[in-house]
Amino acid sequence: MDRPLRLISANPVDRVARVVEGLLVVASQPLSVEDLAVAANDDPERIETALRLLGERYGEGRSGIVLEQVAGGWAFRASREAAEACARLFERPVERGLSAAAMETLAIVAYFGPCTRPDVARIRGVAADSVVAGLVERGLIAEAGRDAEAAGAIRYRTTPLFERVFGLESLAALPRLDDLGGEPDEIRARLEAVAEKRPA
Amino acid sequence: MDRPLRLISANPVDRVARVVEGLLVVASQPLSVEDLAVAANDDPERIETALRLLGERYGEGRSGIVLEQVAGGWAFRASREAAEACARLFERPVERGLSAAAMETLAIVAYFGPCTRPDVARIRGVAADSVVAGLVERGLIAEAGRDAEAAGAIRYRTTPLFERVFGLESLAALPRLDDLGGEPDEIRARLEAVAEKRPA
Amino acid sequence: MIVRELELDLDAFEGPFDLLLTLVLRDELELAEVDVAEIVLAFCDRLEERGRLDLDACGEFLVLVAALLELKARGLFPEEELELSELEPEEAAEELARRLADYRRMKEAAAWLSERLAGESERFFRLGPAPSYGSWNQPPKIAPQSPERLGAALRLLATEPPSLSLGHMALRFPPVSQFLERFRALLRRRRRFDFESEVEGLSRVEAAVAFLAMLELRKAGEVSLEQAASFASIRVTRASVEGREQEWIARSA
């Protein structure tokens, strides 16, 4: 016989699924298929098969642990059924009391990031220093190097925690920019309409 | 009939068990039976029944998630089967871990230390709290007493681990910065002056 | 209604409008801290109280508030000055529309995020590490680093930001004192001059600053002003020494 004899368990995908379960229960952040494949020392296809299997087991209504695809990877969270109990025991420090200014700043960094504090101020028309500092403190945005052009101003981007808190699979899950607000042309037409009403 | 009619699910302990699963997967620390009972708003006996049920489901060989009783209560951990994969997940060297912000802060503490967080902020032009906390957590810098002048702010210095990571025999082996001119104090004053000119 | 006498009660300032303008132009009051919208509200309130539309006052007010807003914008975004001043009015209007569109989009995006967050209030996940056990709970290892990266980080911090052309701003934004000097010099040579012809060729904002200088001279009693009709030329006349002395006598009496 050419091939070495191997002991193969009855259903090896079960074993991969158990390893993935173990990885997800200790991980502090969502793990991508690639992260899981490297750690489990298995190939991505089998990891994906295992994730499908786990998705069936850890779903809302079936288990208190729910497998979700979020922030570019896979993670466990508590089921909605357990939310009331979780709310009694755990704080929500990241998202509690986010102001309107903080939301606007988050939106700007999510869509236009990495961007600097002057970039944010330019769009909002108000200095952004303390709002940005607050979002960094909460871990929703983080420094992403300095802008060589803008005199070395620090640039910021949103973090995986931002995607996770907002339940986004990735930044691509945000509404398309084109679907938001008005077109510059439309706004411009309105500005001009107002301007033309002035007496000659 | 005296007792009000109640709709009771086929097996209410299942529901308690799902809530306990949810609580344990969110917890960063072991949870006691009382913690679980308060959070689930249920009585300790039923919590214990639920934990027995979960113990059967989350056992070595049956699942990658293992329920374990430890000092202080109950917690989920990864199974022994997944231990090797977990070790690989956590032992990847994290080169990407040293961000530009971390590198700047390390450089400031290494060349001008021991110094306080406000000192670092003055040179970088941005609050340094989370970066400093991250470097302390990773053992690259450590507290070195308080600054008697700066309202008792904590001062930081680099650690032996820092010297190992950067391949330095001691801080005296840091590359010279002759091109920035003069003594560390002069360089520091120059950096602070530049920081003031940078856009916020 | 006299716009410059408009009484203001703002967080940053309390007093008449023309004192606010004077303090701002003398750099004695930080314009960034002045809520211009409050000034507009105060003006609108006053207009409403009077119950009739005073077009002269509105025109004067618009010019002054526009100048204030432009000054404030330049103070908030000094680097913008360089980019925007290069633009033709047509392009500037386009840029303005683009920014307004960006802001409106971000308002909507923020509303979308808020709604999303509210919908996620039942999603709980672990923040931080798992309850600690196992050998894997050690802090992650850090790959060896070159010490040169430390020096490189400090060199980047030592890079001077490109200096903003303040000369350019000074040119477009002469301090009110410059016009004071200019008008005083003019008045030493001539008893009377025509405001419009003196500011001809200046930008609207410069003309506004010149206008403030003229008000300043009037307030100090150095000149008297005459205008035959609305929008007619303003004649600036040096106050005669006798006139000032008489005024002084009258006041002390």
The helix fraction of chain C, in percent, is: 55-70%
Tell me the CATH architecture of the domain at 176-252 in chain C.
Orthogonal Bundle
Please give the most extensive interface between any two protein chains, plus how many residues each contributes: A-C, 56 and 47 residues
Low-confidence stretches of chain C: 164-172, 245-253
Strand order of the largest sheet of chain C: 3-5-4
Question: CATH superfamily membership of the largest domain in chain A, which one?
Answer: Winged helix-like DNA-binding domain superfamily/Winged helix DNA-binding domain
Q: Averaged pLDDT of chain C, please?
A: 76
CATH fold assignment of the domain at 176-252 in chain C: Arc Repressor Mutant, subunit A
Major sheet attributes of chain C: 3 strands, antiparallel
Secondary structure: helix percent of chain A: 40-55%
On the 0 to 100 scale, the average pLDDT of chain A is 86
- The structural class of chain A is alpha+beta
Number of strands of chain C: 5
Overall shape of chain C: elongated
**What is the H/E order of chain C?**
EEHHHHHHHHEHHEEH
Order of helices and strands of chain A: HHHEEHHEHHEEHH
Look at the structure and give the CATH class of the largest domain in chain A.
Mainly Alpha
Into which percentage range does the β-strand content of chain A fall? 5-15%
Summed up, the helix count of chain C is 11
How does this model look, in words?
The complex is a heterotrimer, with two copies of chain A (200 residues) and one copy of chain C (253 residues). The longest helix of chain A has 15 residues. Chain A contains nine helices and five strands, in the order αααββααβααββαα. Chain A folds into two domains: 86 residues, Winged helix-like DNA-binding domain superfamily/Winged helix DNA-binding domain (Arc Repressor Mutant, subunit A); 97 residues, Winged helix-like DNA-binding domain superfamily/Winged helix DNA-binding domain (Arc Repressor Mutant, subunit A), CATH 1.10.10. The termini of chain A are far apart. Chain A is an alpha+beta fold. Chain C is mainly alpha-helical and 253 residues long. Among the domains of chain C are: 74 residues, no CATH class; 26 residues; 77 residues, Arc Repressor Mutant, subunit A (Orthogonal Bundle), CATH 1.10.10.580. Chain C has eleven helices and five strands; from the N terminus they run ββααααααααβααββα. Chain C has a three-stranded antiparallel β-sheet. Chain C has a two-stranded antiparallel sheet with strand order 1-2. In chain C, helix 3 packs across helix 4 and helix 8 packs across helix 10. The radius of gyration of chain C is 28 Å and the shape is elongated. Classes of the chains: A alpha+beta (200), C mainly alpha (253). Chains in contact: A-B, A-C, B-C.
